[in-house]
Amino acid sequence: MIFDPPILALLLAAAVSAVVAIAAALFAVRVLRHWDIRSGSALQIRLERRTYLVTTALKIVMVMQMAALALFVHNADRMAILFTGAMCALGTLNVNQWGMPAFLVQIGVFLTSAVWLLLNRADEMGRDYPFTRAKYAFLLLFAPLVVASAILQWLYFLNLDPNVITSCCSKLFTPEGSGLQADLSAMDPKLALIILFSGAGLLAALALFSSAGRWLHVMLGILGGLYFMLAIAAIISAIAPYIYETPNHHCPFCLLKPQYGFIGYLLYLPLFAATALMLGSGLLAALGAPKSLQQRLPAYQKRLNWSAAVLYLAFAGIALYTILRSHLILIG
Amino acid sequence: MIRLEHVTRIHNEGRPNAVVAVNDVSLEIPKERVTVLRGPSGSGKTTLLTLIGCLARPTQGRIWLDDELISALPERFMTEVRRRTFGFIFQRFNLIRGLSALENVMLPAYPTGESHAALKARAAALLERFGLKARMHEKSELLSGGEAQRVAIARALINDPAWIIADEPTASLDTALVDQFIEEMRALKKAGKSIIITSHDPRIWQADVVDRIVTMQDGHILSVEDVSARERAEEKEQNA
Amino acid sequence: MRRWLSRQAHLIDFTLGALLRRKGRNLMMLAVYTLIIFMLASVTFLGSALRFEAKAALNYAPEVTVQNLIMGRHALSPPDWVKKLSRIRGARNIHGRLWGYFYDQAVGANYTLMVPPPRARDLAVNLGEVIIGHAIADLRKVRQGGYLFLLSPSGKLFKLKVIRILPEDSALLSADLVLISETDYRAFFNLTPEDGYTDIALTVRNSNEIPTVVNKITRILPTARVITREDILRTYENVFSWREGIVLAMLATALVAFAIFAFDKASGLSAEERREIGILKAVGWETSDVIAMKLWEGGLISAFAFIFGAAAAYAHVFLFDASLLAPVLKGWAVLYPDFSLTPVVDRLQLITLAFITIIPFTIATLVPVWKAAITDPDIVMR
Ligand SMILES: Nc1ncnc2c1ncn2[C@@H]1O[C@H](COP(=O)(O)OP(=O)(O)OP(=O)(O)O)[C@@H](O)[C@H]1O
Ligand SMILES: [Mg+2]
Question: What is the ipTM of this complex?
């Protein structure tokens, strides 16, 4: 255990989030069993009033979780100096077996939070709260994720042993190694860049011009999720070397370091946000437009899609900028 | 038009101190007319107003605003309807202390997200119309009774509602102010507003601006009297 | 989006007014909140400043330091120790160090005088030359190429040419550093070469051999105290962990008390306030508008408390040397006889501080805020 204020802050945030998520999940069960918007019963009115509390608490928790993700990574990066062998956040995350899972689950929390907030927004537009059941059912998935994230973070931080010799990016993200990270690094940079740019362009175009089919829209959401992973892979295999200006450094975490002008945050933020918007929009399409939202929902989805398209283009633009700025030439 | 169908409102439902304040009321309230609710104290006038004005939900029954069923809306949308449709003038005016007259008038429009400058201009114009230009920046608790009344009316009008709802607006006013209030109502009626007033005050029900008088007792409607029709009939008699 | 922004602007506007209208209560809240943030910020600022120092110290610290002890007190190490130590296998770069403190009466400041280690070629100084830290340059208003005049303890005046000024970012240790040549140093403090060195530093070829080397040294030089860099690191870590841990645990209790206080304050809604919320709702505010307004209220109080508290803590730690915390953290003085802290506060620390203080406050007030916001609008008709 390392007594470090940022760690205490993260643990506090995780604990608070878990408590709120559990309370919200318990409330969700009640909503799923008793919610009846057409009834004016005392119970229904009580439930309705309580949704204000639960929604506000969740909004606070979700915003907190998004901030916590940034804090988590930033802190891991800074703590790298404490561990022999660690050069960036990755090394710190690898100090014990809980670090990486904690990080990945935290990303999951980020994305699901964002999707839930979008769903909530749509729900509150309809006079009969058309998505309430879906929203609270979704919470039953969200809550375990938050609790898991809290548990993993506690395990991770409590077991941080400064005497551990960890391995960092130069060992893991190398094409010669084995394992997922190595495979990601070994991806052909040309292919990676094609996927990255054409994917962003395609998704932006589809998002802008697919006001039509509902199932196409759902597909778009799925594609958004898929592209997220491909884009991360492309960053690892191609964009990262451009930023570091060395063909062999593939780390997706070093990008976040101050010496690269925090370019990583600039690169990841639009990608994460666009992905969340796409997933949210796709989920709404899958749920279908209820009667009370016949007009407003398509308009809302269109807004989401537009924002996603802009963000995808921003992501591609920033990626392009890093390539153009770089002195490295990977592909002739 | 507002239509009530078998509306009942029970306070403290299910508890020993339950009170049936409004009991199976069916009623139509016409547009662009002045309707007065009267009846003894405790007869349920105020409670009925809260139901009509979307401040509370009926325990049973339905309320229609034109063709919109407003009694079953969730709170969020009930508020939306209330904000857009009704302007309230309360018994003790209920201005917020410590805020200026102008800010009090602007208050109901805050949630609409109108730009501050536009809203301020609109509120100032309203206050000016009520002769309060000079008193605009005065704290509301320092206003005189008559001024406070006019600020309250201006506040009721800021969102340009079709309906004005007033609960005992003249209970604590002297005759001159009552006359002034009636004149304001006349002007509003002429401007096409629909008005509902509860009152014990004979000066209100006898005013010629009133079109319809609804009498309540023990939560029931006792009678609905069309006074404009009565007057017209009287006029005809006189002319004959 | 524009509507949303404008609505928030209205809410903030209203909130500010509401805060001012209930000055007494809110000032009280603000005062307590500021105090909490002040305490937490003082500890974290001090903690990180000390860590920063430790890191800086370790960067300079040799792997092994040998000191002479006479009657349990630090004394000069005889010059022949260097020769004796060089016989130990595995020990390298053995060199005597000369360093000490000097009080400059002209400006009332403490300097660290030191002869640069032989291996630090960029810090090499010749006779009559000096390299100084930026703090001294500022204090004495000298620039590179200028001259620094120092009056030695025995009253001799030294005129030294400033060949370099160490930049600000190069760790706290350098701020008050004066690097001069060995000859100048000995002349300054009236030391002959036979007097020896302040202490002796050495490195070990293979870090696994350090314990063996330390063992051999204590055998050859029974009066010597041997300090390894690992020792220092461990001492630092120990002192850090438990002292900071205790302080933070104490503050956590304070934080919980504060959360209860905030909860209590937010729950105790006066009739007047309840009526006000009723009016707002009656004239068209939605429950979520009231919640947003109330959260803004908390947010504004948090923001003010944060700014005041953090600024006060900054002043406390870096201008007044954390005088309020000194009794608790005195252990530092053992390692650092002369401690004046370099102001280092980074973004991460501030974000952390915001996390630690604002989360409990917001969560504690959430339920009362909600309770207030669901006030029935029809109370205004009663
Ligand atoms: N919030 C409440 N809780 C419990 N009982 C209430 C509540 N509001 C009103 N009542 C009761 O409901 C009945 C109707 O009250 P209401 O205020 O509607 O009458 P009213 O006709 O407006 O009377 P007044 O002329 O005195 O204003 C009364 O018996 C009153 O005591
Ligand atoms: Mg009444």
Answer: 0.91
